Amino acid sequence: MKMSNIGVDAESFDLFLSTIHRFVHERLMPMERYVEDNDAVPPEITKELKDLGMFGLSIPEAYGGLGLSMAQECRIAFEIGQTSLAFRSVFGTNIGIGSQGILMDGTDEQKSRVLPKVASGEIQMAFALTEPDAGTDAAALKTQAVLDGDHYVLNGSKRFISNAPYANAFTLMARTDGAEGSGITAFIVPADSPGLSLGKPDKKMGQRGTKTCDVILEDVRVPVANVIGGQPGRGFKTAMKVLNRARLHLAAVGCGMAKRALDESLSYARERRQFGKPIGEFQLIQAMLADSQAELLAGWALVRDAAQHFDSLPAGSPDPAMRVLTSSAKMFATEMAGRVADRGVQIHGGAGYINEYAIERLYRDVRLLRLYEGTTQIQQVIIGRTLLKDVDVLPC
Known about the structure:
The chain is α+β, with helices and mostly antiparallel strands and 396 residues long. The chain folds into 3 domains: 10-120, Butyryl-Coa Dehydrogenase, subunit A, domain 1, CATH 1.10.540; 125-232, Beta Barrel (Butyryl-CoA Dehydrogenase, subunit A, domain 2), CATH 2.40.110.10; 236-387, Butyryl-CoA Dehydrogenase, subunit A, domain 3 (Up-down Bundle), CATH 1.20.140.10. It contains 12 helices and 9 strands. The protein has helices at residues 10-28, 32-38, 43-52, 70-80, 85-98, 100-105, 108-120, 235-271, 283-312, 320-348, 358-365, 376-387, and strands at 125-128, 144-148, 151-162, 169-175, 184-190, 196-198, 212-223, 273-274, 277-278. The strands form 3 sheets. It has a 4-stranded antiparallel sheet, with no helix packed on it. A hairpin with an 8-residue loop joins strand 4 and strand 5 (184-190).
């Protein structure tokens, strides 16, 4: 079996990581107010992200990408998580859930046709699984794909699809009756397919600049050649593999957000004065800072350990211990980031509730991490059920 990508050499990666660190702090952080006020990422930033190679982070070099390992990708996600998540959304869906299904399970022809365009940023992809009545409960999927000659005809609707307004194509799940396996098939669906339309963009609590909306399919004809992997009925397994990897990426993003929230809290605690001295000199403020630092260290250690284990396994391995590690990392890191952001608001006092301060945005933005790619409660179910099968995780 082919081993997971071992990534680029350490020296080249360290140079790339250093470049991304500077780009985040010197270019993206100053643009956060623009994104917040305009609910959009400037086109020039998207171009710069493409030029940096961010659209090809997880795409192998053979297809024009950078070919980072999971451990390396998590370190980049940690850096990008320290600024507005709208910037990550520009490329994150593309290199993650949007294209990973093709990379993991696609035919050689599909990989050669699509992945180079993904890596260059020529096309942007989105992942269309969730429906009005089906998200985590994939068995309730209602979108139908009916075979008609050398095409499938798709009907149904998808909900909360990240980057749908920008997508050129979708990795889309639909039910194909009579197919082997789960009966769910993964398709590559071009966004300009006749019969495919988009709903109006959702108005969300936070993460301004990111776009989600419904995707509506009315007699959309998709060539049989666009069935990912060439065989119907395997879409559920593809979706689960894609989500398993995405959860680890999001765990790293959560750690990055916690780092930014802690940095903002430390800066405010040093500068804000009450009763004649900086509030950071009060022990109860120090206690909140200490709790946040300790939890961040624990979360980041878990994410890095899980990523290294991910890289040690054959690509697409169904290893149950890996499933526990990935869900544990996603659960702990995103919950931890929420607590760190909450303490940050508390440390800021009344100022933490004012939009002028970054901590207010971080508090709203971080909330979504506990919901998408499987809620905290879904991660708990995955972990619990897997452990009950007598899976031993610690030896990893």
